[in-house]
Specification:
heterodimer, A: mainly alpha, 3 domains, two-stranded antiparallel sheet, 26 helices, 2 strands, B: mainly alpha, 13 helices, 63% helix
Chain lengths: 759, 184
């Protein structure tokens, strides 16, 4: 820019400024004074921009002039500002912030709506009351007819909502427990206890469904009389049930029976074998029990799935946001970091520590990423080999665990074939595979956790890797167990006889599986309780009362959320798989989960101190649900397989004499009216299915494109926002420069003016 | 019910119910908790003004690193001394049924230490220091962290968070509503 040009510009600018100044003075009589007192810092102006005002601030200011109770109004900044604000902003603010009283059309409904809005205002109670009084005293139109009725309805609805809330608070289960846990451990851990409660109610719902549609009809209605098997000693195919039922002798109740699920318990509604295979008769209706049995199973599994998806949906949304980079990690760490519900001094200390640790870890991770980029190849290779090696060992351990479970099972079945008379010995043999599973679940995760430390992961992914491995271990041990069942059950005997000496297949294998799952579930809970009360509790006492270093190491425990979550999810997996074979398993599970709540509460509040790892409620929720979904799949796939492929046992249950459970559904389907079958086949046929498939793919693609475009739009808007911000900064700087100039000129004029004037 | 009539009139309770997120029962419960802080004072005058250190004896506030700020924000006299109505306001904002936007507004006021309606670098520093105390991040980490926060949230690039920006962040933070909560 040449000198002449600049001069010209400046003079032009000065002229404009002068004109602007005059205009300014004309419009706002008090402005001259203001400009002199205004600070020159552009940041100060930034705070006056409308976009920078929160409602609290504006309301506060609007109140300053009417009622100067706020101390803020007297602070230096506001003092500078108050004169101008009184002139210019007062009216705007009032119009914008106060409920509009001047509106002529205010009727009862709008008044009521406004009254409901008062509570959202960040002002204190007396002011709220003032506004309410104003609203009530203002003239309103009375509504007529239908509108009046609608308003009444809305008010009643609101009233009922309040009443419902009160009632719910009163009967809510474990409310006080939640508050205590929250006060000590924060929101992440309390989410786990909500999860237990949710599972308990899920099981309760499943129980109700099963009881209504399977158990009650069986108990109330009578079987159609049909007894083809006349002689007791007949060994033909029709007599299988008889043989089985005759094995129910000696039905005394012993504690062993209750633990093992055999003897007396086997002959009750608890297990599959009890349920008849015929259509039940009543005076009013005939009830097809086999069909109801399978339909109920399908319904409660679907219901569980829907409930899970519904609960997971919001969590997954957050996860998605996180993965798309729209998640504000550091901001939520700082602004949402403190759990305001914490009420315990020592927990607060640990929380401080945990936040400190989390912030450090995150900064550390970031630095590590940087480092990774310039880490040399040799080091990279070394870590790679360590990881491959340790992963290999982890897999080996898992395989070893699986084999151990398999052979223990084989051994136990083999030994039980021989006659074992000693009750305790028998009990031990029966429980051997399950003791093995529970033992492995206790020991191996610790080894795996130790590996993770060696592998030099970042702290966050270390947690994830360890958790992932433990999940795999747990579910694979369950898988091995199911495979062992399968190998036992698969062998097909001669179709004409009930059982063959070559097969070790039990007479009623469904009941047998039900019993195994029943045992495993009970053992799982018992071991949980035993570890909590008999191992961890003394450990805690040791650490608390003996202050030496050794006992501190031995006894100090943190509440490790992932481990406890797995315990609970594992039980639920067993219930899903087993409830077909033991229909009252969900009822048992409901009771057990009720107990588990107290066991875990004890483990949490008495045994352990809060963890120094922060568990966020949103993240734990999505973690629970994803693990639960995986375990649901693990439970349902084998079950579905047995439904379609395996032959139901001939001597018991609703499906005796059929090739598979699936054949019943086919039969039922064929009994539909022909048009239903026609419609259904039309839907399934290729003429319909292929276009549908294509339409689905196309719409999927469309939404993919839309989301991509939206993402791009977000980026563009962000850039624009930054540009606007820069523009604003520029203007503000210009403005402050202008004011500075103006003030200096005033000073100059003043110092020059008096002699001029006197002349 | 006898207690209710002696403490508050039905009309007052209705007022409180309309103006806060509490039901009448919860208002009574809140008053019980308030009374427990200073039985001798509140016994005489149910709306007595308690000094800040008395209010800070409320367990959740005592251990809260922002306890004094909370008291100041909700106190009518701006110095942290709270009457029952202030206390009720406070608990109402922290209750379960309060919408996120209302919570965000108050959180902003709590975090705004210097009262300039912006969360500037000094505010952020104070927040982080209070969160991590007794430990302290070193200067390097602190600048790094604040840089990260501003990079995430300061949309218009002016070196401070305005309320709109803060609200935007809160909207995207799933845990805020969950953690900004005190159960009565």
């Amino acid at each position: 820019m040449s000198g002449g040009e600049r001069k010209k510009r400046i003079s032009k600018g000065a002229g404009w400024e002068e004109a602007g100044g005059e205009f300014y003075q004309e419009c706002y009589p008090g402005a001259e004074l203001d400009i002199e007192h205004l600070p020159r810092d552009p940041h100060y102006f930034a705070t006056l921009l409308p976009s920078k005002q929160n409602r609290a601030a504006t309301t506060r200011r609007s109140r300053c002039d009417t009622k100067s109770t706020y101390k803020r109004c007297a602070t230096n900044r506001s003092q500078n500002y108050s004169t101008m604000q009184q002139n210019t902003m007062q009216n705007d603010v009032h119009v914008a912030m106060m409920p509009d009283l001047s509106e002529n059309l205010a009727n009862e409904e709008t008044t009521w709506e406004e009254m409901m809005l008062i509570k959202t205002m960040p002002i204190n109670m007396s002011q709220k009351r003032e506004i309410k009084a104003k609203l009530l005293s203002a003239d309103t139109f009375r509504l007529q007819g239908l509108k009046q009725f609608k308003l009444k309805k809305r008010k009643l609805w609101e009233y009922l909502k309040v009443r419902r809330k009160e009632l719910y608070k009163m009967i809510e289960l474990w409310r006080q427990c939640f508050i205590t846990i929250e006060g000590n451990f924060g929101t992440g851990v309390v989410a786990f206890f909500f999860f237990i409660k949710w599972l308990m109610f899920l099981n309760l719902t499943i129980t109700v469904i099963i009881v209504c549609f399977v158990v009650v009809p069986t108990l109330l209605m009578q079987e159609k009389e049909s007894d083809p098997c006349a002689q007791i000693n007949d060994t033909s195919y029709e007599c299988c049930p008889k043989i089985y039922f005759n094995s129910w002798t000696n039905l005394t109740i012993t504690p062993y029976n209750i633990l093992q699920g055999n003897g007396w318990l086997e002959s009750t509604i608890m297990f599959y074998g009890y349920y008849p295979n015929s259509i039940l008769e009543n005076v009013i209706l005939n009830y097809n029990l086999p069909l109801a049995y399978i339909a109920t199973a399908a319904v409660y599994l679907l219901l569980s799935l829907c409930a899970m998806i519904k609960k997971a949906a919001s969590g997954f949304k957050d996860r998605l946001m996180e993965s798309e980079g729209q998640y504000y990690k550091y901001c939520s760490m700082v602004f949402g970091g403190w759990d305001f519900c914490i009420s315990n001094e020592s927990s607060a200390k640990i929380k401080h520590k945990a936040i400190y640790k989390e912030i450090k870890e995150n900064l550390e991770t970031e630095r590590r990423e940087e480092e990774k980029k310039n880490r040399n190849e040799e080091e990279e290779l070394r870590f790679f080999f360590i990881r491959v090696f340790l992963n290999g060992i982890s897999i080996l351990i898992c395989v070893f665990a699986g084999l151990l479970i398999f052979y223990t099972f084989q051994y136990s079945v083999g030994e039980l074939q021989k006659d074992v008379h000693d009750d305790l010995h028998r009990l031990l043999l029966e429980f051997a595979p399950y003791l093995c599973i529970v033992g492995l679940n206790l020991v191996i995760p610790n080894i795996l956790n130790y590996f993770v430390i060696l592998e030099n992961y970042s702290p966050i992914s270390a947690l994830r890797v360890a958790f992932f491995r433990t999940v795999i271990l747990r579910l694979s041990s369950l898988g091995v167990l199911l495979a062992s069942f399968f190998s036992l059950v698969r062998c097909t005997s001669d179709p004409a006889t009930c059982s063959s000496p070559i097969c070790q297949k039990p007479l009623c294998w469904e009941t047998y599986i039900g019993q195994q799952i029943y045992k495993l579930l009970i053992l799982d809970i018992l071991s949980n309780a035993a570890i909590t009360f008999l191992v961890n509790f003394p450990r805690m006492l040791l650490a608390k009362h003996l202050k030496c270093k050794f006992t501190q190491i031995l006894g100090a425990q943190e509440f490790e959320l992932p481990k406890h979550v797995l315990d609970v999810v594992y039980s639920q997996t067993l219930v899903w798989f087993g409830s077909f074979y033991a229909p009252l398993l969900p009822a048992l599970a409901t009771v057990l989960f009720f107990l588990v709540f107290y066991i875990k509460k004890f483990a949490c509040l008495v045994n352990s101190s809060p963890s120094t790892t922060i568990y966020r409620a949103s993240r734990s929720d999505s973690m629970f649900m994803s693990v639960l979904l995986v375990s649901f799949t693990v439970a349902v796939i084998p079950w579905a397989y047995t439904m379609t492929e395996l032959e139901p046992s001939k001597s018991c249950g609703p499906y005796m004499g059929r090739l598979s459970v699936w054949s019943l559904i086919r039969e039922f389907y064929n009994s539909f009216p022909s048009w239903v079958i026609f419609c259904f086949e039309g839907i399934v046929s290729s003429t319909f299915a292929v276009p549908t498939f294509f339409i689905l793919i196309l719409s999927l693609y469309y939404y993919y494109i839309v989301s991509k475009a939206n993402k791009q739009m977000v980026n563009v808007l962000k850039k624009q926002l930054i540009l606007e911000g820069h523009d604003k900064q520029f203007l503000l700087n210009r403005l402050s420069a202008f004011i500075k100039q103006h003030q200096e000129r005033h000073k100059a004029i003043r110092s020059v003016d008096p002699p001029n004037n006197s002349n | 019910m006898g207690q209710r009539s002696s403490q508050f009139t039905e009309e007052e309770l209705q007022d409180y119910q309309d103006l806060t997120y509490f039901t009448k029962k919860e208002v009574m419960h809140a008053h019980m908790k308030f009374k427990a802080l200073a039985p001798e004072k509140v016994g005489h005058n149910r709306n007595a003004k308690l000094p800040m250190n008395k209010v800070l004896q409320y367990p959740e506030l005592r251990v809260n690193p922002f306890g004094d700020r909370i008291c100041k924000v909700f106190s009518t006299s701006q110095d942290g001394d709270c009457t029952f109505e202030d206390f009720l306001d406070m608990m109402s904002v922290f209750s379960d049924s309060t919408p996120k936007s209302v919570k965000a507004e108050h959180a902003f006021r709590i975090f705004d230490f210097d009262g300039d309606d912006m969360l500037g670098v000094s505010d952020l520093k104070e927040i982080i220091d209070r969160l991590t105390s007794p430990q302290k991040l070193n200067d390097n980490e602190m600048t790094h962290l604040i840089q990260n926060i501003l990079a995430e949230a300061d949309l218009d690039d002016d070196g401070a968070l305005s309320f709109a920006e803060f609200e935007h962040v809160i909207d995207k933070s799933p845990d805020f509503a969950n953690s900004f909560r005190i159960q009565l």
